[in-house]
Design a protein that fits this description.
This protein is α/β, with parallel strands linked by helices and 489 residues long. Helices cover 48% and strands 19% of the residues. The strands form three sheets. It has a nine-stranded mixed beta sheet, sandwiched between helices. Helix 8 packs across helix 9 and helix 15 crosses helix 18. The radius of gyration is 23 Å and the shape is globular. The protein starts with 10 loop residues before the first strand and ends with a helix. The structure holds adenosine-5'-diphosphate-glucose (ADQ). Adenosine-5'-diphosphate-glucose binds next to strand 12, strand 13 and helix 15. Its EC number is 2.4.1.15. GO terms for molecular function: alpha,alpha-trehalose-phosphate synthase (UDP-forming) activity; trehalose-phosphatase activity. In the N-terminal section; belongs to the glycosyltransferase 20 family.
Length: 489
């Protein structure tokens, strides 16, 4: 199709996620500075030219005054972003509370928080009400900006109510929902007090997507067992309406990483790191500091490896880069001190005057530093206790075409299904298993490393983030057309 001005027609895509892909810093009463934060979703959609994308979400700041809100809205419009303004109380109850304290741990098999289960149901109930209210606020902004023919793509566990809110307002809207975390076994989902409401709300979407077939299957089982609906190979049927459910494994913009390795600043990082760790094998962990990432377990496994392999002392270093997240949540603060305590103990135990076995950084690295680190690494350790997909494993593989390093990967990360054949798969809870995998990886022959890398590199290059986004949206368009045909028949 062609537009009136002769340019090719591009379908509008409204991407709705809790956070906008920008960080906003207030500079004055009516001035803001904005910085694009290139997370997975942003880089996925940056490469997609097929759609005219608009972002709808929270800017991550509290803006109580109208002047500030107007100015921020205007500044964001230049970045094709539309803000949802949430006040502090809602953020506390909806985001810190229901999203991060209840859904996040539950979906990663860490259970519901004990206090909430035992203490006043009002605590739980009020967080749930705030969650619904926040979702309605997102819906109001979508409805205001929606134009006929737009595709609305809702993201993640923060917005499980959104499909229902949108469809209640406009049945014709094309609505897709994608979950970036695992969807747990229906036996786990059953424990959630609001289990049925959430499932019904998600089922209002036309297309529901997950990273893996297992998560999709868990979701369909939850709908059949908890709601008593019928699961079909296509999805879930509810009173004649089919909600299509399928797996859409995400990828990365691999070319961006591969190209970066030729940039002068990345080459400088690589040279400096090689000099700094000369004569030692480099092992790397890059994670958000979150309990699901299994950081303490990983470091304890490394300790066990050192205990059992004296010959490797001073010949190997573990660089653990952990970006702090959700720093105001006590459990995350506890995790930080726990990790510091273990690292301190191991460095005290195995360190010498000239070398320490673990370098732990509590910060994020910029893209160029990260690429440099990935490129000089001999063994990457991704030992998440559960992880929807895990993009660090993909990024590492993309930067390893020269070195052909080894990936040790948790079998509980979605990525195990795609990179499992090339990686050494481990159960992150089994410290002996991980310590053995470290030994195997460090001693692996170059022929074996090459074979494993080739498999994974091919996968990472051919399953990109752009392809993921395009496939999801085209499947959503097709699903809606098929549903229309079915109703006409
Ligand atoms: P995350 O839990 O954030 O994402 P992940 O997929 O590994 O996990 O992505 C993390 C991103 O942050 C990567 O792009 C990585 O480079 C970056 N990052 C992490 N630590 C960093 C550091 N110290 N410095 C700089 N950058 C750092 C959620 C789900 C995942 C799912 C993604 C995408 O939990 O399972 O793969 O969404 O769907």
């Amino acid at each position: 199709r062609v537009r009136e001005d002769g340019k090719p027609f591009r379908q509008r895509l409204l991407v709705v996620a809790n956070r906008l892909p920008v960080s906003a810093i207030r500079k004055g009463e009516d001035s803001w500075s904005l910085e694009i934060s290139a997370g997975g979703l942003v880089s996925a959609l940056l490469g997609v030219n097929e759609f005219e994308t608009r972002w709808i979400g929270w800017a991550g700041v509290n803006v109580p005054d109208e002047i500030g809100q107007k100015a921020l809205t205007k500044a964001l419009a230049e970045k094709r972003c539309i803000p949802v303004f949430l006040d502090e109380e809602i953020v506390h109850q909806y985001y810190n509370g229901y999203c991060n304290n209840i859904l996040w741990p539950l979906f990663h098999y860490l259970g519901l928080p004990q206090e909430d289960r035992l203490a006043t149901t009002r605590g739980f109930q009020s967080q749930f009400q705030a969650y619904k209210k926040a979702n309605e606020m997102f819906a109001a902004v979508v409805n205001k900006h929606y134009e006929e023919g737009d595709v609305v793509w809702c993201h993640d566990y923060h917005l499980m109510f959104l499909p229902q809110c949108l469809k209640n307002h406009n049945r014709k809207m094309k609505v897709g929902w994608f979950l970036h975390t695992p969807f747990p076994s229906s036996e786990i989902h059953r424990t959630l007090p609001s289990r049925s409401d959430l499932l019904h709300a998600v089922l209002a979407a036309d297309l529901v997507g997950f990273h893996t077939y297992d998560y999709a299957r868990h979701f369909v089982s939850a709908c059949t067992r908890i709601l008593g609906l019928e699961g079909t190979p296509e999805g879930v049927e509810n009173q004649g309406k089919l909600t299509r459910v399928a797996a859409f494994p995400i990828g990365i913009d691999s070319e961006r990483f591969i190209r970066a390795l030729d940039l002068p600043q990345v080459k400088t990082h690589i040279k400096n790191l090689q000099e700094r760790f000369k004569g030692r094998k480099v092992m790397l962990g890059v994670d958000r500091l979150d309990m699901i990432k299994g950081i303490p377990q990983k470091i304890l496994a490394f300790e066990k490896f050192l205990e059992e392999n004296v010959g490797w002392h001073e010949k190997v270093v573990l660089l653990q880069i952990a970006v702090p997240t959700r720093t105001d949540v006590p459990e995350y603060q506890k995790l930080t001190s726990q990790v510091h305590e273990i690292v301190g103990r191991i460095n005290g135990r195995f360190g010498t005057l000239t070398a320490v076995p673990i370098h732990h950084l509590d910060r994020s690295l910029d893209f160029y530093e990260l690429c440099g680190l990935y490129a000089v690494t001999d063994v990457a350790l991704v030992t998440s206790l559960r992880d929807g997909m895990n993009l660090v494993s993909y990024e590492f593989v993309a930067c390893q075409d020269k070195k052909k390093g080894v990936l040790i990967l948790s079998e509980f990360a979605g990525a195990a299904q795609s990179l499992g054949a090339g990686a050494i798969l481990v159960n992150p809870w089994n410290i002996t298993d991980v310590a053995d995998a470290i030994k195997k990886a460090l001693n692996m022959s170059s022929a074996e490393r090459e074979k494993r890398h080739k498999h994974n590199f091919h996968h990472v290059k051919s399953h990109t983030a752009q392809e993921w986004a395009e496939t999801f949206v085209s499947e959503l368009n097709d699903t809606v057309v098929e549903a229309q045909l079915r109703t006409k028949q």
